[in-house]
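ugh finaly. both done.
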Amino acid sequence: GERIAFYGQLSHIQQQVGSYPLMVIHKSYLINYYHIKSVAATTVTMANGETLPISKKYRASFKQAFLAKES
C-alpha cells in the first residue's frame, strides 16, 4: 500500500475523487475500502498489515458504510 502525505482537509480529497471507494476512519486517515483486511471494534487492519485507529467520531458512519459495501 502506498501512503500519501496531504496537508489540508480530507473532505476536499473526498470531493475530488468522487466515487472512488475511500472511507474516513479518523481525522488523519482516509482509507481505500478495497485494501481493508479486517475490522475490529476500534481499529482497521489494512492489507499491508498496518493497524489504524477508528475514532469515536467516525466509528458509526464507517461501520455503516463498511457493512453496506459488504452486502
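ok and the 2nd:
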Amino acid sequence: ELQALVSRGFSQADDVARGVMLLEKTDGMARAAQLAGAYVQRAKDALSKLPPSNARQALETLADKVLTRKS
C-alpha cells in the first residue's frame, strides 16, 4: 500500500497521513532514520577530504540538520 502512495506522489488528500501511519505501524521510520544516518556519515566522510573552510563547515552542519529536522 505504501508503494502505491509513493508511486502517485502522495497526491491525494490523505496520502501523507496514511503513509505516516503505515510507517509508524512497522519499523519503517527506524529503518529510514538508520539509512539517513548512514548517508550523512558517508557525506561527512567525503567532506573530510576537503580542506577546512566555511563552506565545508556549512555542508557538515547541513548534513547534521537533515537528521534532526522535524518536517
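summary for the 2nd one i guess: DSSP finds four helices and no strands in the chain.
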